[in-house]
Amino acid sequence: MTLPPILAGPILRRAEPGRVSVWLATSFDPSPGLALKIFQEAAVTKTGFLEIATVSSSTTIRAGDQAYVSLVSADPDAKSPALAAFPTNVLLAYQVWLTRNDLPVPGSPVDLREVVEAWDELCYEGLDVPTFYLQDGPRLVLAHGSCRKPHGDGTDAMPAADTLIGLKPRDLERRPCMLCMTGDQIYANSVHGNTLGQIHAVVQPLFGYDEQIPTDQGLVPLKTLADVSRKSKRPGVAKQAGLNPDEWPLFGLGEMIVMYFLAWHSSLWAGFESAKPALTKGSVGKLLSTAQGFKALKRFVKALPAVTRAMANAAVYMIFDDHEVTDDWNLYKEWTARVRKSELGRRMVTNALVAYWLCQGWGNDPSRFDATFVKNVQDYCDLHRTNKGKVSPSAASTFENMIWDFHDWAFVTPTTPPVFFVDTRTWRDLKPKGRAPRLLSADAWRSFLGMANIHGAGGSSPVFSRATVRQGDPLVIVAPTPVFGMLFTEAKDKMDCLDDGPEGPDFEHWRFNQLAHHEFVKGLIDHFRPRYGVFLSGDVHTSFTAEVDYILQASAVGLDNALRPSASDRAGATRFYQFTSSPLKNQNESFGAQIDTMRWPASEVMSFVFGIEMWETWDLVGYDRLWRTRAIEVLQRRPDVQLISQLIPRILYVQFMDGQAPDDPFVTMSGLVALALQDLKMGRPLWREVGGYYRHVDKDSDDAPMYPWNNIGYVAISQTTIIHEICVVKEAARLLPAIRRHQYASTLPK
What is the pTM of this model? Predict the structure, then answer.
């Protein structure tokens, strides 16, 4: 088959005053002429762009025979005395030059616009090149989102980013300077049958071999697992890896990489418009679901030009959650040991991490990956190419162990304030099955602090510094799972875990390990002493905005402060904002209907009985675990709770996010419950947390605090105000789709 020259991209990646990088995937080798040129809009006339003197460098990974992934960078030319760094807060542009050997003059560099079909669709109105700007205060504007499954229900919200950038591309006060992708950029464990067919239509021409994977029956060609009929062996093979497959999981290196290309660019979807819905293994209901997914997939493909343009015109930063690899990746100790012991499981995770690095991780901060790491990835790709896809477990074991044990995935953006992306997947403190992990291990926490040079903290500065943060500055963190989540759904998930085990609902909310949650928040307060904190998250397939006041060493609970903390406690609190945007494309229709029609009446009942308003506000108090047994005894002696006395331990566990084991030292409860236990003389709590979910204003729609439909988040932080908008595609279009914006705005604490 004839392959398109551009497989995906260009995508603007890390962009800072000292270096700008662009990612590109091609079906030909673009080097040695691969170069990046940077331009600045003419300051007076604003009718054109002036080239800035730069020095360009690039690295190209040959992933397959005709699959090349490149990162090209431009630095300010040190020989130019007038330019020590690229200018900030002004409109900049870029052009990519590359080499093509199939042109009349082989090997001669050409402008990317001569290669890309429909070049004008990469540029906004009035501009003939992709543009961006380098933000350096006082206003940070970004878009964020997660959970984008091509065949998921609803209209893809990722094209809304195209509208946010392109409506007024020269208005840098409102245009996002970056897109923060907070996890599940692909669903490697859940691919539609038609997507799998599209992958296998192009993977052999791109990579030049039919990849084989290690199974219990030895090396098995993936082409024999491309069948998506009822006779498919792929789900059964997945179980050999210790996985519980959802629809069609991916295993191969080529499969994983091509999935990223398909997620971001339309070129490899050629011929899909004439495809027929794939059959699938399962019931009539499953067949119906597959047909619906096929329709959703067609809408997804049609909207891809807007996604491609958005990613070319704002710096894109990305971190994984679990679906880039598989559902519930690294859930507990036995899960990780089981999958790593399996030759197929080990290979599958390795391939997923290589594809993640090539397509996501590399561009976040290229300096974090030295020449040895890059060479190791190239060698792994070469191992597949030279062996025509037949790579034995022994041949790959050294690299597999290296990538499994690699943990340097976190990074920080070069913005003001900086945005810290944390890795909550590969550097966990895993617990035995049935106990929730600590999402950041002690080593991960130290590494996180190492990304910040904290002025005013006292003591020695960290050895490794990426961002200078002064105590009292805002603190912005991307945490794939909400740090302050939806209490009602977390309680429900915890109850389901008691009944169905941890691999039913997600057993990895931050609060499920209450000690780790408290120590993380307390550590942020103690080390950074931020004016306020912002968490950007996804994962939970519902968007919301929450304000949380976290009080360390709060006053003892009494009649005067049982319903709300005292004024002095509130004055000493640290304010956190939880901005959650999820999903981009994977909405849960039934969950949405539940929110819209039922408004979670069970939550209202529980708030009436136990004193916690879990629908829009909450008040939690944390005590040492030593009081837990005595609290249960006191409650069970009360005549008004005799009917449910045997359920009190379970209620404490679920409703109040109690610890799971004797070494978990905290139990949380509402102020009213603490007041009811006054005779225990529990004294001052270790902490108190008061929060609320806030309604997003939109005159044309329901203003419920929880928004379960596909959306992307828009965040604007200035010196005095903070805005979080939930943006929904109102009317789908190839470019600049109409959107609806649900806004939350607040005055920042002084």
Answer: 0.93
